[in-house]
Amino acid sequence: MKTAFVVRETRGHWIHDVVAAVRREGFRAELVTEALDDAERAELTSIVDGFVVVDDVRDAPAVAEAIRARDPEPGGVLTAAEGIIASTARVAELLGVARCPADVFVVAHNKFAVRKALAEAGLPGPPCALFADPADAAKVAEVVGLPAIVKPVNGAASTLVRLVSTVDELAAAYDLLATRLPQSPDSRYHRTLPGSIDPLRVFLVEGLLQGPEYAVDVLIRDGVVEPVGIVDKTLIDERKFELGMVCPPLDLPEERAAAIKAAVTDAVRALGLDCTCAHVEIIDDAQRGPTVVEVNAGRPAGGAQPALLKLATGIDVTAEAVSLALGTPPPARGAGLPVPVGYLVVYADGAGRLVRVTGTGEVADLPEVLEVVTIVSPGQVLTGDQEVYAVNILAAGFADAEDLAALHAEATKLIRFELEES
């Protein structure tokens, strides 16, 4: 039996689901990780078939050497951890089991590089500019227009994304990111990007698009692009955090759905993605039409969104992603529910180290609720800087978007996060 090596950087709710999918494909699953404490090793021992411990999971040659020492003919190398997708693809290349070139992921995880690639392919996008000095705020505002969005060049999970409406707010956003981002424990922000871009000092500014927002998970198998389903982001707060989604959208004309899928397909092809998956976010802008704003390449959607898609479409995007990474035939598919499925997210109020979450049982008893999935665990540090899908609620039987919003409000009242100073 061949062994697939699953690489992880930090704790992740996704590990259990990915390992289960690996085993369904007939592979053993060993976890490649940095040093583990005894409690975590004991917890993971029940999930995986073994461990390969390395000093730095981002050091592709060292990781490849460690895997080769364990198994000269590995069956595959994969991850669903956003920050190490490119380096893990490099490991797969070194071991001769790559499915999609690592260089494609390097570009896809640099938002400015993605903007350039899509523009060169003739696809619409917001005006954008790199922002390296708060003294240049007026010049940047002139290029991109106001209002605008400021974000890390290689960010994820809406980390420190800011909406600004004036030049002064733009300069203040720069100062905020330059102060707070260096405090992030996420190592991706502490590594220089191609082109000598320091993600701690150089940020991306994009003109604000106007229109409804959607998310589409995409499977690309041997050049064939398949959008799985359109998820309507019906509730988004002022931080750009996603509060509520529904699949399929409640009121989306077929011609708009076709245009959205076409835009997503064009984007992943322009980036050179193949034999992998991607989570693509898109705004149907009033002037530009469907415009891709994010391409999270090499992994499905985060949180419980794979469960949402499976309920709505019958397609298990996690199993599909594992199959693509291992080069095995597509997994069997089921049928989706005959009604729209809602997905609600409740975030911790405040910052600190999580002690416990209460109220999830009361939410599970609500008549529309299908399942409640808690992603966070005690001891985890939570802040308002990053979109951490703490408690995830899957629902059906709601009448409309207002009904879904009311359910979110009710769930938010019931769920409580007990935090202590970190």
TrEMBL record:
<protein>
    <submittedName>
        <fullName>ATP-grasp domain-containing protein</fullName>
    </submittedName>
</protein>
<feature type="domain" description="ATP-grasp">
    <location>
        <begin position="115"/>
        <end position="326"/>
    </location>
</feature>
<dbReference type="Pfam" id="PF13535">
    <property type="entry name" value="ATP-grasp_4"/>
</dbReference>
<keyword id="KW-0436">Ligase</keyword>
<dbReference type="InterPro" id="IPR040570">
    <property type="entry name" value="LAL_C2"/>
</dbReference>
<dbReference type="InterPro" id="IPR052032">
    <property type="entry name" value="ATP-dep_AA_Ligase"/>
</dbReference>
<keyword id="KW-0547">Nucleotide-binding</keyword>
<dbReference type="InterPro" id="IPR011761">
    <property type="entry name" value="ATP-grasp"/>
</dbReference>
<dbReference type="Pfam" id="PF18603">
    <property type="entry name" value="LAL_C2"/>
</dbReference>
<keyword id="KW-0067">ATP-binding</keyword>
